[in-house]
Specification:
Elements: H1 12-34, H2 42-65, H3 70-91, H4 95-116, H5 122-145
Helix pairs in contact: 1-3, 2-5, 3-4
């Protein structure tokens, strides 16, 4: 899995932000479990799997096939926790928090794609296209279900 700390994407302040996001997610899940109302959407969970698979492969390609510029690493460092917040909270039927995660992730993903991915190898471009398509399908399904 993609490790933010080992790739020096974040400063100590950035690492604290990731830890705070994880704490919020844990507290939210704990609160849901305490109330014995753990609601999630199984269909969205299944629809998230292709995107997660393509993205995981893309991360592996980033680590093994090319040197990623520091600014692109920062964009990835913002996108990763934001998209995870979006996926987790959309599956948990919390539209407000999911929307915030998507609103933060989308401009970073767009900038990353338009600035850094123009001259990628065709194999990586295909993975990006498949990841983007699977995320689009996920977002459309989520919007249809809310």
């Amino acid at each position: 899995m993609y490790t933010l700390v080992n790739d020096n994407i974040f400063s100590m302040g950035g690492q604290r932000i990731v830890v705070k996001i994880i704490i919020v997610l844990v507290l939210y899940l704990h609160q849901s479990i305490q109330g014995l109302i753990v609601t999630f959407n199984l269909y969205l969970l299944l629809l998230a799997l292709p995107y997660l698979g393509f993205t995981t492969y893309d991360v592996w390609m980033h680590k093994h096939d090319r040197d990623v510029p520091q600014i692109e690493k920062i964009l990835h460092g913002i996108t990763l926790p934001s998209i995870l917040v979006f996926l987790v909270f959309s599956i948990m039927n919390n539209t407000m928090v999911a929307s915030i995660g998507l609103i933060i992730a989308f401009p970073c993903m767009l900038a990353d794609e338009l600035i850094y991915h123009k001259h990628l190898h065709i194999k990586e471009k295909k993975i990006h296209m498949l990841a983007g398509l699977s995320l689009l399908i996920y977002i459309l399904a989520w919007l249809w279900m809310i």
